[in-house]
Amino acid sequence: MVSITDNQPMIGRQLFDVITSGMYDNPLMIFREYVQNSADSIDLAVSQGALIMKDARISIELHGNDRSITIQDNGLGLSNGEAHFILKSLGCSPKEGTTQRGFRGIGRLGGLAYCSELKFETRASINEDVAVISWDRLAIEKLAAETDRFVSLMETVEKVSMVSLRPANDNDLDHFFKVTLINVKRFHADVLMNVKVVTDYLAQVAPVSYREEHFQWAPLIYEYLAKVSDFRCYEISVNNRKVMRPYFNSFAINTKLSDRVDNIEFFTFNGVDNTPIALGWYAKTNFYGSITTQQNISGIRIRLGNIEVGGQQFLDSMYSERRFAGWQIGEIHILNNRLKPNARRDDFEQSPDYELFIEQTAFLCRHLSALCRKSSTQRFAHIRVENTLNEIEYLFGGTSIFLDEKHYELAINRAQVTLKKIQSMSNNNVPYELKKKYYELKDKIEKRDDNPVYLTTYLDETMMLNHFNQKTLFTHIAKSIIDSYDKSNSAEEILNMIVTDFSLSK
């Protein structure tokens, strides 16, 4: 048991558990963390002239045979003189106070929760050896079993980590940083070793390019986001497959319905000093409904340094109906680190700027909710109109039977009144095919060129009705009316159903 002999504060081993096993609720988040560190390293290399951006690479390899994962970049790396100190230190990142994305110095150990050994290898010059630091998960578990004594954080770090230098080999780049997860656990359906799952995840959260050949709005978005100082896209690959943003001009709502991006709307959020704090865009679509989750594009995503913060559900509660969040496509990019993400990058730290950001985000979501509601109302109106036109088309399609000429004229008058009520269909929001059908039917009814069939010329009493006495005939007609009432749209349709019954008995 711990014996407290003085008033000196103690930092125990449990804190190490928090920054490893307790860091992320989704194992895939470790890829975001390591990609973030790689992007920062590449930025430093470019700024110091050690690398040009077009040659920058972040390579992820999933090795199923030996259950290992490697994440490597050709960024600036760490020199032999600083690597061991920085990589063994916790919570004192040299990025603090800079414009780089990572700044707490704890996220790099997140991968230790999912493997037996976590290894970092790096160098900053071709003239150096490779600095290596390994973290041993089994050693951590052994320390955790020692419940009869106090184990400090410092003792934990010393016992579970090992530092060394090794000579460079032919596979080592001139300057690089490499992370290796050894003996990766089978965790959460083994998502860490699934190439498609990892690629799809990074396509959403990582700082990668839009597919300009499939997403025509990409050049406009690039031009608008050029004002974001840390908006950069990096070449990232998973098992040699290039990762790209998943946006396309067209997308599926469900297996039967698709939609497309008709335009892009840009917007700006201001901070407490009335200067821009974030820039964003959203897709103007027909807002038919929730986009299928398999496409990985739904939701207005928040990004800092072009890396997602908070996930696709981050803004769901701000819509008038949560379902409308899944109807959206878009992004909000934080400007110049004006907002600081929390340690898990699932939200931001509280600040006056953040309060204003939330207010403006809520206003945006209300606006988008209104667009969804308007679209939904219009869509149901179009469905009602389409059903009405189908009924008129059926009535005057040449197969309907009318009692006599007077009944036919009455049906014509009713159809003209109905068509007059939906004359507003000339507005631009109505689908072309629906407009076309409207005007074709209107013209047909005005010309009366449907050659109506009257009951008196259709029925052959001697052939069709001689099997029925009056009581049976009346019962049969009454039963037909009752059976057809809920299935029909008009009196004429019921009449046709009754006559069809008789014609079949001919």
Please report the distance between the alpha carbons of the first and last residues.
99 Å
Please write the CATH class name of the domain at 9-193: Alpha Beta
Largest sheet: 8 strands, mixed
Beta-strand level of the residues, as a percent range? 15-25%
Task: Tally the beta strands.
Answer: 17
The name CATH uses for the topology of the domain at 9-193 is Heat Shock Protein 90
Structural class: alpha+beta
Oligomer: single chain
Q: What is the level-2 CATH architecture name of the domain at 9-193? A: 2-Layer Sandwich
Mean pLDDT: 85
Name the descriptors.
506 residues; alpha+beta; five-stranded mixed β-sheet; elongated; eight-stranded mixed β-sheet; Heat Shock Protein 90
Word description of this protein:
The protein is an alpha+beta fold and about 500 residues long. About 35% of the residues lie in helices and about 20% in strands. The protein has helices at about 15-20, 30-45, 80-90, 135-145, 155-160, 195-205, 220-225, 350-395, 405-420, 430-445, 455-460, 460-465, 470-485, 490-505; strands at about 60-65, 70-75, 115-125, 130-135, 160-165, 175-185, 235-240, 240, 250, 260, 265-270, 275-285, 300-305, 305-310, 330-335, 400, 455. Strands 5-4-3-6-2-1-7-8 form an eight-stranded mixed β-sheet. The radius of gyration is 34 Å and the shape is elongated.
